[in-house]
């Protein structure tokens, strides 16, 4: 995951790019809650601020006024390479012989070890232990004078998942890998008030923004222009329209999990509103796994659209049987197992009046390790549920993701070591049904070859080495003396 945002505002408009980027990042908080950061340029110099914690505690009103400039990038982190420590927060920053450069990265590289071996000075030169830091060092080192030229030389050497916002002194550049594993969209931001409550469309008042999701455009009032295409970069400069440059042929494989679960329901991907897409997945799930129940309830909040669709198709009442404490993070993306285990009781409380004595169809969007699901079933039974029938609006996750989701090894994934009956027994449900891959595609009304489904079917679009080079803490485990 990770959320990224970029902004280039018109010159002399008086609006702070740091304010716009921080606001845009707020809409992407669900994509990463370990750290947040912002880099700004005033046209001559880049300033950076980042820290561990939620966006609101890192980028607060005391900090933002000191980050002056009309160009900015921002990042919130969910770790897939390296520990959750300050050094690994982003944006990364590096002052090279040719350029100063800051980067926000969403995704995970699969040839980190090889790239590290090629980096002059090796691991000892990296202040942090992330693949993003390694990419930044490669770009800063690149002898080409122009940042776009440097990118054109470096990107073909990089393999894996990367959506990037890159900041040099004069430009913000958005980049999406040839598979387009992670999303990235461009928006137009009108900043000049015509005086009648509407914005002027005068180009001198036009700014440009980049965001992981369209919800990031909405929050700053930007209009969606288009996706950055897989294998493409977009150059945003003051006073110019965006320039799109292809650096590799596109072989699209957007992470289907973005549509099933990760991205916000009010975002759009592949022309689909994600609330609607998930509601249709729930309808499809009801067709594939019908059940006699008294009511349908979601595991909040992310299971809600699919539960609504399930109830609609099954002609059953929809109720909320669990109340979510809104002021804690998402269980799945907190880094340690201990936190995950404590997470569910901190986050969810059953509504006894709703569930007592009832046969429940409980709809969730995934089972990863199974521990959270087991606790939810226990909570519902303790609250008096007569039966708990689990319905999952995604297929079973058999394989780890190497492209930016923190399910590093197969043994962490319950579906890779247990049959569906064993999973049902482990979580304590009366029945269990998963949506099929065909069902996901039917709900989306899109073809298979637009997406990555690798964690469901093992068909990795980009070959992944099953060795240490793709492990999360790889850069930390190499001793400094022998690194590189
Ligand atoms: Fe998404 Fe799964 Fe592919 Fe990873 S392996 S990019 S989570 S579909």
Write the layout of secondary structure elements.
Blueprint: E1 3-8, H1 17-26, E2 35-41, E3 46-52, H2 55-58, E4 71-77, E5 92-95, E6 100-106, H3 112-118, H4 131-141, H5 147-154, E7 163-167, E8 172-176, E9 185-190, E10 206-211, H6 214-220, E11 223-227, E12 232-236, E13 243-246, E14 254-255, H7 256-262, E15 268-269, E16 272-273, H8 274-288, E17 295-298, H9 304-314, E18 322-324, H10 337-347, E19 348-350, H11 352-355, E20 359-364, H12 371-382, E21 387-392, H13 414-417, H14 420-427, E22 431-434, H15 437-444, E23 451-452, H16 454-457, H17 474-477
Parallel strand pairs: 14-23, 17-20, 20-21, 21-22
Antiparallel strand pairs: 1-4, 1-10, 2-3, 2-4, 5-6, 6-7, 7-8, 8-12, 9-10, 9-11, 12-13, 15-16, 18-19
Helix pairs in contact: 1-6, 4-5, 8-9, 8-15, 10-12
The site of iron/sulfur cluster has 11 residues, from α7 and α16.
């Amino acid at each position: 995951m990770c959320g990224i945002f970029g902004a280039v505002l018109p010159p002399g408009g008086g609006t702070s790019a740091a304010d716009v980027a921080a606001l845009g990042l707020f809409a992407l908080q669900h994509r990463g809650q370990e750290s947040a950061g912002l880099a700004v340029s005033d046209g001559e110099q880049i300033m950076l601020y980042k820290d561990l914690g939620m966006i609101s505690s890192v980028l607060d009103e005391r900090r933002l006024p000191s980050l002056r400039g009309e160009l900015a990038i921002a990042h919130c982190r969910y770790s897939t390479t390296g520990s959750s420590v300050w050094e690994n927060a982003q944006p990364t920053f590096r002052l090279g012989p040719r350029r100063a450069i800051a980067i926000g990265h969403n995704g995970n590289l699969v040839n980190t070890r090889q790239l590290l071996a090629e980096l002059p000075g090796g691991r000892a030169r990296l202040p942090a232990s992330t693949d993003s830091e390694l990419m930044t060092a490669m770009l800063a080192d690149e002898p080409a004078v122009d940042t776009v030229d440097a990118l054109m030389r470096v990107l073909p050497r990089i393999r894996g998942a990367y959506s990037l916002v890159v900041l040099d002194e004069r430009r913000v550049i958005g980049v999406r890998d040839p598979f387009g594993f992670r999303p990235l969209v461009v928006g137009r931001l009108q900043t000049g008030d015509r005086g009648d409550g509407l914005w002027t469309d005068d180009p001198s008042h036009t700014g440009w923004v980049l965001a992981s999701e369209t919800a990031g455009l909405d929050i700053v009032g930007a209009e969606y222009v288009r996706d950055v295409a897989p294998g493409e970069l977009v150059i945003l400069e003051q006073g110019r329209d965006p320039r799109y440059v292809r650096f590799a042929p596109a072989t699209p494989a957007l992470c289907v999990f973005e549509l099933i679960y990760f991205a916000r329901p009010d975002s759009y991907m592949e022309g689909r509103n994600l609330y609607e897409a998930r509601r249709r997945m729930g309808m499809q799930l009801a067709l594939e796994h019908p059940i006699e129940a008294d009511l349908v309830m979601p595991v909040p909040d992310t299971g809600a659209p699919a539960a609504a669709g399930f109830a609609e198709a099954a002609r059953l009442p929809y109720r909320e049987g669990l109340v979510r404490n809104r002021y804690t993070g998402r269980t799945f993306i907190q880094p340690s197992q201990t936190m995950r285990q404590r997470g569910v009781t901190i986050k969810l409380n059953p509504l006894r009046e709703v569930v007592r004595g009832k046969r429940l169809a409980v709809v969730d969007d995934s089972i990863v390790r199974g521990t959270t699901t087991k606790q939810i079933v226990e909570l519902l039974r303790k609250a008096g549920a007569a039966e708990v029938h689990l319905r999952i609006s995604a297929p079973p996750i058999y394989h780890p993701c190497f492209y930016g989701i923190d399910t590093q090894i197969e043994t962490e994934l319950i579906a890779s070591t247990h049959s569906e009956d064993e999973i049902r027994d482990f979580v304590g449900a009366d029945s269990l049904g998963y949506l099929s891959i065909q069902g996901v595609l039917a709900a989306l009304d899109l073809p298979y070859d637009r997406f990555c489904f690798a964690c469901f079917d093992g068909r990795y679009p980009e070959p992944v080495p099953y060795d240490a080079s793709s492990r999360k803490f790889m850069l930390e485990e190499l001793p400094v003396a022998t690194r590189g």
